[in-house]
Amino acid sequence: MTQMARWLPLFWALAFWGASASVLVLSLLPVEQLPPQVLDWWDKAQHAFGFAVLTVLGWLAYPQRLRVLLPGLLVFGAFIEVAQHATGWRYGDVLDWLADAVGVVLGAVCMAVWVRFSGPRARSHTTL
């Protein structure tokens, strides 16, 4: 095993947890501290993109734990919406959670396609 191969799982895990913490913090900041929204659909696209990235990073960090990771990301998205509602300066939105779910699906599809076409080595490290 090469030196890089030994550190790669740790790198993906740190990237996943760092991105998760960033999504949580950005989701709970007061609206005044966020950049202005240009288009309403852009908010939903940001949710989907953020959760697609979390899905890809989570898949790379924990390929043997996908049955926990994917539902866990959906629960994380729901938690964020409930936490936003509880802040008093943000509000939870079911459509935001649905955009999160779309991102999880898109990220999982991208990774499944990548695993499918990257050969048996990638498939051996990934199970649903």
Assembly state (oligomeric): single chain
Summarize the helix and strand pattern as letters.
Answer: HHHHH
Beta strand count: 0
Q: State the separation between the terminal residues, measured CA to CA.
A: 25 Å
Strand content: under 5%
What structural class should be given to the helix and strand makeup? mainly alpha
Work out the helicity level: over 70%
Rounded Rg: 16 Å
**What is the general shape?**
elongated
Mean pLDDT: 87
* Biggest sheet statistics: none
Counted by DSSP, the helix tally is 5
Q: Catalogue the unreliable spans.
A: none
The tally of domains stands at 1
Keywords:
mainly alpha
Question: How does this model look, in words?
Answer:
It is a single chain. The protein is mainly α and 128 residues long. The protein has helices at 3-28, 40-61, 66-87, 94-117, 120-124. The model has no long low-confidence stretch (mean pLDDT 87).
